[in-house]
Amino acid sequence: MTPASTLSQNDIVWARAQHPQVFNVKGKRIVFALIWAVIIAYLIGSLWYFDIGRFASASDRAWRLISAMFVWRDIETWQFGSIYTAIAQTLAMAFLGTLLGSIAALFIGFLAARTTMPIPFVRQIVRRILDVFRGVDQLVWGLVFVRAVGLGPLAGVLAIFISDMGTLSKLYSEALENIDRKQVEGVRATGAGPIKVMRYGYLPQVLPVFISQSLYFFESSTRSATILGLVGAGGVGMIIIERFRANYFDQVTFVVLNVLVCVYAIDWISKKIRERYIGEQAH
């Protein structure tokens, strides 16, 4: 390469002509400044549109609410039995909904994967149905099933089941499409039928991934089951909304703290299961 000190004016002109984007520093600065101007203008417009100034006028109410949440009174009247029954109901909803969704996804994932479903028409139909299940928010499914089967935890279980089935089926199908084909071909070479090929060729490779993803979804569904209770799908969410309406903010804080403890415990147990049976090491 020619040293910069020996470059002639012609060489510089030639380099500018060949690589104009490198030398157009002024143009880049203008574009960069315009981008930042648009971002700042959008931010200021958003703050004005959403009336962010109301925080100042609502500061007294906010402080009163926070103090009411962390100053606990009349603890002996809190009906701990109903609170912990609702928490147990929430955990059961999350577990059953995730379990049913995982079982259904185990079969549907094979229909949506390119490696296990060679018929494109069937594969695309299954994927589009999964898009509907996955695209509708879990809270909307909760509202649908509350109208369909009535108030109670059954609506929450069905909402979690439908939502988790759609997402897990997508994840399972992607895992099936990224397996090592040599093991599958080896099982097929023994004369095994399609069922045995799936059992001994596919499942041993993807089952650890399936279990790991289902454990993560169980943790996520526990939080979702709390929200589903707000629309009448049972669980601790109904306790929270009832206490909110009665202005028992200290009890709301107590319930939320218990839910956080449950989520932490589920996360810890899931991590131990993955480390023990799947081989995932702790960081």
From TrEMBL:
Assigned keywords, A-Z: Membrane, Transmembrane, Transmembrane helix, Transport
One of the Pfam families matching this protein, by short name: BPD_transp_1
GO cellular component, one term: plasma membrane
GO-annotated molecular function: ABC-type phosphonate transporter activity
Domain named ABC transmembrane type-1: residues: 87-270
TM regions (residue ranges): 30-50, 86-113, 139-162, 225-242, 248-266
Gene3D superfamilies reported in the protein's UniProt record: MetI-like (1.10.3720.10)
Bilayer topology annotation: Multi-pass membrane protein
Localization terms from the record: Cell membrane
PANTHER family reported in the protein's UniProt record: PHOSPHONATES TRANSPORT SYSTEM PERMEASE PROTEIN
Family (UniProt): Belongs to the binding-protein-dependent transport system permease family.
Protein name: ABC transmembrane type-1 domain-containing protein
Organism: Pelagibacterium lentulum
